[in-house]
Design a protein that fits this description.
single chain, 416 residues, alpha+beta, Helix Hairpins, BirA Bifunctional Protein, domain 2, 2 domains, 8-stranded mixed sheet, 3-stranded mixed sheet, 12 helices, 41% helix, elongated, RNA-binding
Length: 416
RNA sequence: GGAUCUUUGGCAGAGUUGGUCGAAUGCACCGGUCUUGAAAACCGGCGAGGGUUAUACCUCCCAGAGUUCGAAUCUCUGAGGGUCCA
């Protein structure tokens, strides 16, 4: 959630920043107005309540002295009607304000480029040069089927479209990649955690998936539980509603989980292969940091993901997302895109974001900053999407006969 | 699934005939005195959110609803934990 106090104080600056992200100005105006209304309603209610409390105290006094209370009771009763009304006004104002505020995205950092969509993202740099093929490289689904690594039909048989099954070396490679990534991240100071794949509404509100993006989440019938769309949700919310000691920060964590997404808005996109699945494996990085160190941690996380790709000998590039392509909670995001020879294009394989205090404000994650309690900054990034990494290995390491060479760093994990 | 007990500040733990209770006490933590330094001892501070220039003031004792002039304390519902029975 954005900082309403700041909005109130620096309305012009804040609204200009939000408009860069495409937030409608009337919505921002409404938010400011509602915030003022709530303040007024609160003040009114609180002063009535103060009267009530004072009278109650007096009431007790009179009772003890065995004096007559009928007159006071009449006054109190009259006041009560006003309180009930004032409370209702306040409740409505609160609800309206929250429903608007919760649906407003984070403010982009000043150095995030303006832009409408992914075409306006800005490339920062390329790492490793894509290899020259002496033959026409195949797409990964062809290679996957030819090698017997992935079975798309049986995935559909078991569940529905956008599910697949890995066999043999395909399955082993997934496991090897997960272990390799977790170990790699651990060496960079990220502590491994293992978390639930189902979370409640509070957790999803904390990281911003709810209330706005419920359509893309799988919900357990009859329960307020959802399958996680990313490990970012459980890991970030680990410290929900807590006040951390300053010396506990930064908290750097890494977790492997399956992720589940309905892909509601992606009909027709990447229907073939395993680029976009309803269930996929991902190793995630999450960090909680002091505000003044979050930029540094952000760079560390980008470097970690990029170095991981380099270690796997996968050519990739780093891209700064423009305002239009930035996610709901992110103040800044750098995507890592891996080269896919079969498609002859770079495709997203990791996304590292700094949400600043946006999630922390929702999730109430703070730290003791001397005498003050201050919101932490939360950061998250994939390192990496396992399925897409497997795709990249298949396409980049394919030979003319369709066989695939295994990256050196994975061999120890495969008993090779 | 049935019965019963329980849920308080970072932790432990008082507080149930409703009224100076946002809440005793201990530990932890922070500051100070003492000490060459540390420990011990002693003194002081120490829950969160809102509000105010600062006070006042409001809210929060698992969550929600209710009774009452007034609830951490009473009633109901729900959730978590313990014990017993199945």
């Amino acid at each position: 959630m954005i900082d309403l106090k700041l909005l109130q104080k620096d309305f012009d600056v804040m609204s200009a920043k939000l408009m860069r992200k495409g937030v409608d100005n009337t919505l921002i105006e409404a938010l400011k107005k509602k915030n003022e209304e709530l303040k007024a309603a609160k003040t009114a209610y609180e002063s009535l309540q103060a009267d009530q409390n004072a009278m109650s105290k007096e009431f007790g006094q009179l009772m003890r002295e065995k004096k007559d209370v009928t007159e006071l009771k009449a006054k109190v009763d009259a006041n009560k009607i006003n309180i009930t009304q004032a409370l209702e006004t306040q409740r409505v104002a609160q609800e309206t304000l929250e429903s608007i505020a919760m649906s407003i995205p984070n403010i982009p950092d000043d150095d995030v480029p303006d832009g409408a969509d992914e075409n306006d993202n800005i490339e920062i740099k390329k790492v490793l040069t894509p290899r020259e093929f002496s033959f026409t490289p195949k797409e990964h689904w062809e290679l996957a089927e030819q090698n017997g690594w992935i079975d798309f039909e049986r995935g559909v048989k078991l569940a529905t479209s956008r599910f697949s099954v890995s066999f043999g070396m395909g399955a082993k490679l997934e496991r090897a990649l997960i272990n390799f990534m977790l170990n790699f991240n651990a060496k960079r100071g990220f502590e491994e955690v293992s978390v639930p794949a189902l979370v409640n509404r509070g957790a999803l509100e904390g990281t911003g998936q709810l209330p706005k993006f419920e359509d893309d989440l799988y919900k357990v019938e009859g329960q307020e539980l959802f399958l996680i769309p990313t490990a970012e949700v459980p890991v970030t919310n680990l410290y929900q509603d807590e006040i951390l000691a300053a010396d506990e920060l930064p908290k750097k964590m890494t977790a492997y989980t399956s992720c589940f997404r309905k892909e509601a808005g992606a009909a027709g996109r990447d229907t073939r292969g395993m680029i976009r699945q309803h269930q996929f494996h991902k190793v995630e990085l999450v960090a909680l940091a002091k505000p003044d160190e979050s930029d540094k941690i952000f760079e560390e996380m980008v470097a970690c993901a990029s170095d991981l790709l380099t270690a796997l000998e996968l050519p990739h590039r780093l891209v700064t997302l423009c305002t239009g392509d930035l996610g709901f909670g992110a103040a800044k995001t750098i995507d890592l895109e891996v080269w896919l020879p079969g498609q002859a294009t770079y495709r997203e394989i990791s996304s590292v974001s700094n949400t600043r205090d946006f999630q922390a404000r929702r999730a109430k994650i703070r730290f003791k900053d001397g005498k003050e309690n201050t919101l932490v900054h939360t950061l998250n990034g994939s390192s990496l999407a396992v399925g897409r990494t497997l795709v990249a290995i298949m396409e980049n390491n394919q030979q003319e006969d369709g066989s695939i060479t295994i990256p050196e760093v994975l061999k120890p994990y495969l008993g090779m």
